[in-house]
Amino acid sequence: MSTGQSSNGQLSIGPGDGTEDGDALALGRQLCFAVYSAAHAFNRVYKPLLERFGLTYPQYLVLLCLWQRDRRTVKGIGEELRLDSGTLSPLLKRLEAAGFVSRTRDAGDERQVIITLTPKGTGLKPEAFGILTEIGKACGCSLEEAAVLRTALGELHRNLDENLPTRSGGQR
Amino acid sequence: MSTGQSSNGQLSIGPGDGTEDGDALALGRQLCFAVYSAAHAFNRVYKPLLERFGLTYPQYLVLLCLWQRDRRTVKGIGEELRLDSGTLSPLLKRLEAAGFVSRTRDAGDERQVIITLTPKGTGLKPEAFGILTEIGKACGCSLEEAAVLRTALGELHRNLDENLPTRSGGQR
DNA sequence: CATAATTTAATTGTGCGCAATACAATTTTG
DNA sequence: CAAAATTGTATTGCGCACAATTAAATTATG
Lengths: 172, 172
Prior knowledge:
2 copies of one chain form a homodimer. Chain A has helices spanning 19-51, 57-68, 74-81, 85-97, 119-128, 130-139, 143-161; strands at 72-73, 101-105, 113-117. By secondary structure, chain A is mainly alpha-helical. Among the domains of chain A are: 54-124, Arc Repressor Mutant, subunit A (Orthogonal Bundle); 129-159. In chain A, strands 1-3-2 form a 3-stranded antiparallel sheet. At the A-B interface, α1, α2, α6 and α7 of A face α1, α2, α6 and α7 of B. Chain A binds a DNA duplex through residues 40, 43-44, 47, 56-59, 73-75, 83-91, 94, 109-113.
């Protein structure tokens, strides 16, 4: 990014800063926003495609989980998607209200709620699965490029997770 | 996995070719979730760092904008961050309530609201700017790797924008 | 001048996303 | 068995994020 843009620009880090800190600064600034902004861009493409099914992207993610393997607990879905019950509980109720899934308590352990696809939910798969293809095309990149990008994002994700206060990086 | 690693570099969009559709499917599935999930991971790292200033990440982004160039309209900030007024208006009011910015109508065009840093908001910069450095370190990758990733994400973002329904092309 | 079209912010409604909390069922422990 | 700790889910509160709508000011037009 360089110092550029100095219309009013107080962008410079400060005199005498070490190069490594400056690098980390530029990195943190640009990389996080690039990810944040790309996520929004994805959502803007997804939204009109999912709209005709009355789905949102997180709801679609849950259905993708269930199409892969049906009959899962709330916790299991949350672990795969990295979402907690505060997000999933109302989401799953909306999916239930829309008739795509059913929520039943496990007979063995009644604390657990088992999420199951309804016939309507299962029947949605052939139609809605194609949305992934449209998204893939909208990315406008080759499979190889995407694989590189995905691998890099995965590694980044792991690195970030290691800095969570509850795991190893404990500053609060 | 059903889709082998085919060696054709480009995605074929034409109808009737199943194999490339399978590639696009895998691509759309994996790439979007990787971005979505990495954005959450970033936020989880940012949250404890910003907490001591009482800021959220989008609020921090607005302050970064203003530290770069002060006295900006809501629309100008929204264009840079790709957020609309429905998001920014309440956010800016919270920043004002916290004493970091002031909101005043432009004298020339009273439709526009000018956002200005207060002394408290300006004074926050030296302390809070360092968060970017911490984030950069948390990424755990080199500047070169980050640059590659950022460039790829930027290109991806542009490609996605071209697929927006109401917008046939760039023009942003 | 008056009216219409345009531009810009703010408001409203719905749905994530997560922390904190509550609660019920299960497991552990004495 | 009863009490305590743990586990899984639901609830609440706050803050994004965006579509749709509203309101106000500016500009264009007759």
